[in-house]
C-alpha cells in the first residue's frame, strides 16, 4: 500500500517507492529502496519535499501505524512501478520523473539546460558502471527519466545537447560519451522520421551501448597511450560483455540489446564482434555505429585531442564500407555540414565560429566573426546569418583551431 509522506517523516525501515520533484534535483539514482539511516539523512539534506512509501514492504508512518490497512489514507493516484526491494546502499545518484516536453527553445537557453542535464546524467551513468563493476545487476529502467529528458532537450533544440556534450574532458569521456551518443541517436532518429517510441528506444540504446566497458580493466580503459594487441583484444570484447550484462540484468529491450552488441559492425563486414555484412545489421545498430564514431573522434581522449566537427564528418564520409550511406547522410543533415562549434574561414577573409544551424540552408549557418586573416588581428565580434538574402559572404572551408593557436574556441560560442 502506497503512502505519501513529508521527507521529515521518513525513518529507517521504510520502503521508499518514489521521490517527488525532478530527478535533476535529488541525489539518488534509484528511487525504490529500503531506507537506512544514511539514506534518510541524504533525502532530508537534498531538499526533497515529499516521497511515496510502500507500507507493505516497510514501516508505516507513526501517525497511522496502529490503523488497519483499510483505514489508512488513500494511496497516491499515480501508479508506481512494481517494487523490487534492494539494499539502501544501492541507491546512488539521480533518478526521477523527467521534465515535461516544452516548445522549441533557442540555442542559448537550451545550452543552459543541457549543462545541468549532462552533469546529472554523468552521475547516473557512472553509478550504473559502478554497479556493474561490483558485480551487481544494473537497473536499466532507472535510466528512463534521463532518456526522456534527453529526448525532450533534443526536441526543444536539436543542437544544444550534442554540442555541449562534445566538449567533455578526457576524464569524463567514458560516462559523457554515453550521454552524447544518446543525444545524437535522438536527433538522427527524428531526422529519419522514426515514430516517437522508436526515438526513445534509440536514445536508450545509445545511453546503454557501452555498458560492456564497465567490466573492462580500468588501466586499459583509461590508458593514455596506444593499446597493445592484447589490450585491444580486451576492449573489442566490450560489445559482447555489454550484451551479456544487459541480459543478466533482465533487459528485454530488443533495440538496446542489439545496439550494445552490434554498434561496431561495419557495412562491408569487417566490423566486430560478428563481422556482419550490411544487410544483416539492423537500422538501430547502423545508426549507433555512426553516432558512436562521431562522438569518439570529436572528443578529447586520454591519448589524443578530438578532431573538429566538420573535419570529422569529412573523414567519416571517406571511409568506404564503414557506414550506411543513407543513414550517414541523414546524420550529417541532423548536425549540419558545419556543426555548431566549427571554426570556418569566410570569403571575406575572416575567421568565424558556427553558432547555429539554419535547417533550410546547411551550407549557410549563423556564424560569429572574430578575426581578420588579412590583417592577422582580432576584430569586434559580430554575428552573421549567412543564409539571409542580403548576405554576400560564404564559408570557404573549415579550419583546425590548433593551426590558429585557439585552444578554447568554445568560449566564443557557448553562452
From TrEMBL:
Biased composition (Pro residues): 74-86
Region described as Disordered: 71-103
One Gene Ontology term of the molecular function aspect: phosphoric diester hydrolase activity
Organism name: Luteimonas chenhongjianii
Residues annotated as transmembrane: none
Name of the molecule in the record: Phosphodiesterase
Residue ranges occupied by any HD-GYP domain in the UniProt entry: 152-347
Pfam family, one: DUF3391
Amino acid at each position: 500500500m502506497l503512502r505519501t509522506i513529508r521527507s521529515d517523516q521518513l525513518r529507517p525501515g521504510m520502503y521508499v517507492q518514489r521521490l517527488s520533484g525532478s530527478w535533476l534535483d535529488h541525489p539518488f539514482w534509484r528511487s525504490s529502496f529500503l531506507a537506512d539511516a544514511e539514506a534518510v539523512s541524504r533525502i532530508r539534506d537534498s531538499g526533497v519535499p515529499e516521497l511515496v512509501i510502500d507500507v507493505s514492504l516497510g514501516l508505516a508512518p507513526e501517525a497511522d501505524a496502529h490503523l488497519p490497512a483499510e483505514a489508512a489514507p488513500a494511496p497516491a493516484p499515480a501508479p508506481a512501478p512494481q517494487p523490487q526491494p534492494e539494499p539502501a546502499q544501492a541507491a546512488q545518484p539521480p533518478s526521477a520523473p523527467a521534465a515535461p516536453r516544452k516548445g522549441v527553445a533557442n540555442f542559448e537557453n537550451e545550452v543552459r539546460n543541457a549543462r545541468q542535464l549532462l552533469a546529472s546524467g554523468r552521475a547516473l551513468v557512472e553509478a550504473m558502471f559502478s554497479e556493474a563493476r561490483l558485480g551487481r545487476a544494473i537497473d536499466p529502467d532507472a535510466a528512463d527519466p534521463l532518456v526522456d529528458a534527453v529526448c525532450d532537450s533534443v526536441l526543444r533544440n536539436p543542437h544544444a545537447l550534442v554540442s555541449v556534450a562534445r566538449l567533455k574532458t578526457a576524464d569524463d569521456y567514458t560516462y559523457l560519451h554515453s550521454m552524447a551518443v544518446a543525444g545524437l541517436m535522438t536527433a538522427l532518429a527524428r531526422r529519419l522520421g522514426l515514430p516517437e517510441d522508436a526515438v526513445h528506444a534509440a536514445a536508450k540504446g545509445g545511453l546503454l551501448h557501452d555498458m560492456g566497458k564497465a567490466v573492462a580493466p580500468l588501466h586499459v580503459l583509461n590508458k593514455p597511450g596506444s593499446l597493445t594487441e592484447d589490450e585491444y583484444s580486451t576492449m573489442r570484447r566490450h560489445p559482447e560483455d555489454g550484451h551479456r550484462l544487459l541480459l543478466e540484468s533482465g533487459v528485454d529491450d530488443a533495440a538496446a540489446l542489439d545496439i550494445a552488441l552490434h554498434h561496431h559492425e561495419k557495412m562491408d563486414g569487417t566490423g566486430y564482434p560478428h563481422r556482419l555484412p550490411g544487410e544483416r545489421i539492423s537500422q538501430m545498430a547502423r545508426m549507433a555505429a555512426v553516432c558512436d564514431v562521431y562522438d569518439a573522434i570529436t572528443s578529447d581522449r586520454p591519448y589524443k585531442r578530438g578532431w573538429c566537427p566538420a573535419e570529422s564528418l569529412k573523414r567519416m564520409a571517406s571511409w568506404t564500407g564503414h557506414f550506411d550511406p543513407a543513414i550517414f547522410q541523414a546524420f550529417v543533415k541532423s548536425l549540419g555540414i558545419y556543426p555548431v562549434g566549427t571554426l570556418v574561414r569566410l570569403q571575406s577573409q575572416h575567421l568565424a565560429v558556427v553558432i547555429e544551424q539554419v535547417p533550410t540552408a546547411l551550407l549557410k549557418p549563423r556564424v560569429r566573426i572574430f578575426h581578420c586573416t588579412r590583417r592577422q588581428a582580432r576584430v569586434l565580434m559580430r554575428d552573421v546569418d549567412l543564409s539571409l538574402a542580403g548576405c554576400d559572404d560564404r564559408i570557404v572551408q573549415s579550419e583546425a583551431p590548433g593551426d590558429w593557436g585557439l585552444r578554447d574556441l568554445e568560449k566564443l560560442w557557448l553562452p
